[in-house]
Structure formats: C-alpha cells, structure tokens
Amino acid sequence: MEFFKPGGFDKGLLVITVFLLAVGFIMVFSSSAVLATEKYQQSLHFFIQQVIGAAAGIILIIYLLSVRKPFYQNPHIVYGLLVISAFLLAACFVMPSVARVNRWVSLFGIRFQPSELAKISLVIYLGYFVEQKKHRLHEWRILALPIGVIGLFTLLILKEPDYGTAMLIFAICGLMLYLGGVKLRLLAALCVAASALFAVYLFSASYRMDRITSFMSPDKDIRGKGFQPYQSKLAVGSGGLLGVSLGESKQKLYFLPYAHTDFIYAILGEEFGLLGTLTILGLFLAFLWRGLVIGSRAPTPAAQLVAVGLTLVICVQALLNITVVLGMGPAKGVPLPLISFGRSSLVCTLAAAGIILNISQRKGAERKAR
C-alpha cells in the first residue's frame, strides 16, 4: 500500500539536477561557440538547441511530478514504451546514416536517438517484470522473456554501432535482475554468453581495437590513434587547480575533437580546474546517493528497482564518461549526462530524473499511519 504526497519530492535531487543542467548550458556555449560560428554563422546555435532540449525535459519533469498513479506499474505504458523503443531502434537502419553510423531517427526535422529512450524503457520494464514474477525468478522459462528483450535491444544498439551504450544497458539490466532476486548462477551463464557476443563485436571493428591499444599505450601514437586521449588529458592538466577561466580554453579550438559532446568534461577541467572537475564529480555522487535513498524508501519493489535502475543509468554513464576523459578507460562515445550537448540525451535524462522524483513522492502506508 502506498499514498501520493504532492510536493513531497526529494528537493536535494532536484537541486542537483538543476545545478548540473546550468553547468551544462555554460559549458555547451563555451565549448561550441567557435565551432558554431564557423559551421552555422551563429555562435549560439548549439546553446539554443540545448535550451530547447532542456525546456522539453523540464516540461516532462513538471508533468511527471503531477502524476498520481504509479504509471511504471501500468502494463500498457510499460509494454507500450518497450515496443516504441524497439521500433525506433529498428527504424534507425532505414534512416540515412550520420557519420557512418545509424543511431538516429529523423521525424519532421527533429533528430532523436532511440537508445536514450531504450535505457528508460528497459529499466521500467524490468522493474515491472520482477515484481510480477518475483516468486518464479529461478525458472529459466520465466526469465526467457526479459533475457530475450535485453538481448534484442543490445543487438540493435550494437549494430548501430554504439558499443559503449550497449555495454552500459546490458550491465544495468543484469544488475537490476540481480537486485530483483535472480540467482547469481543464472546471471553468470547469461554474462558468459553476452561476453562472447561483445567480444565478437569488439574484434570485428579495427577502430575499437585501436581504442584499446591507445588506452594500453597512450604515448605510443599521440599524433594518430592516441591523439584524442592525449589532448583530453592535456586539457584537464593545463587547467591546474582553478582553471584558465571561462571561455579561455585552447583545446576547444579544434585540438580536442568532440569538445562539446563526449569530451566536454575535459574543457570544464581546463577552464575551471581541479576544483571544477571535483565539484561535478561530487554532484554526480550526490545524485547517486539521493537516488539510492529514494529507491530504498520506495513503497513497492517495482518503484525501488525503477528508482535505483534510473539512478544507476545516469550516474554510471557519468562515471564512464569521466574515466574516458581522464584516460582511465578506452573511449566509448558516451556523453556526460545533463552537461554534454545532445537533445536526446538531455530530454531522456531529465525524464529519468522526473520519474525518480515522482517515486520520491510515494510513501508507504505504514508511514502515513505514523
């Protein structure tokens, strides 16, 4: 049993989200103004697009905060989101490729990346499934459906190709199944099969192997395969303790590729220094803490898993991005949530935060009695 407390959402999580969003606005403009001026003759181009994405995401948060019913337990919504996500992922392959990949669908002039929606859809689906089948999670035939769904989504995203996102989604889904009560030995068998699949895709593309070798030997070819990681670490290192000040980054002047997307944390480190990077890292850790607290206090198993799953999606992705920027892991093409440029990522991340905030308004009946 549960009751809905309007306005009782977690204020700390909302403040953290808004602060990260504000930092994102500042860094997107700072890191993209030169590129936008040259490419679009408008220095605010990427900034305006980011604001549009944020506006859509904020509207979603406001709406989600007002939803009284636990929509993440409604089978029509759960399976509807799942089908829409799968359809959009498949539709990517009939769309014109962008930079030799098929990660986006374009409708009415709007480009959207379905893998971002897939993260939310899978988390909600697994939360619903685990609660419905909680007494039969030891049976292979019961687990066949979620394993098949996870496998389908993983394959579609691998084929785009988007190796980093596919690994992230599979890992979070596996963890959710474990937290939901699936035996470790069953998950171990699944992980062995998945490891073989990921290995095949890893070795099937030379550029992925190049990323591994450049990570293992970062100074071996800094003008070739190791150029991007080297420039990223150079940006962070040149920022020192307090940074070179906002707008004064040199690496964003075409030295560091994808400065306003995957490597925006490096530009933040250059302009705001160690203090700035540690602040952002601390905010993501605080987001993780608040999300896990909300999950632990949620009144139903489905709400608990959804809150924890969405929190992990955001925070693990942030930590993956940061490790790549700092040279602690091979490049994966994963953006920094709420900060990197990208409307699809921004809208879906804000929607995920809105769902977590909605869950934070739901209290157990025993607490109401007190």
What does this structure look like?
The chain has 370 residues and is mainly alpha-helical. The chain has one domain. Helices cover 68% and strands 3% of the residues. The chain contains 13 helices and 4 strands. The strands form 2 sheets. Strands 1-4 form a two-stranded antiparallel sheet. The protein is globular. It starts with a strand and ends with a helix. The mean pLDDT is 91.
Q: How are the elements arranged and paired?
A:
Elements: E1 2-4, H1 11-40, H2 45-66, H3 75-91, E2 105-107, E3 110-112, H4 114-132, H5 140-159, H6 163-180, H7 184-203, H8 206-216, H9 227-238, H10 264-297, H11 301-325, H12 343-360, E4 362-364, H13 365-369
Antiparallel strand pairs: 1-4, 2-3
What is the N-to-C succession of helices and strands?
EHHHEEHHHHHHHHHEH
| Low-confidence region ranges | none
Structural class: mainly alpha
Query: Using only CA atoms, what is the Rg?
Result: 21 Å
Provide the β-strand percentage band. Answer: under 5%
For the record, the count of structural domains works out to 1
Helical stretch tally? 13
Average pLDDT metric: 91
Largest sheet: 2 strands, antiparallel
Q: Alpha-carbon distance between the termini?
A: 14 Å
Q: How are strands sequenced across the largest beta sheet? A: 1-4
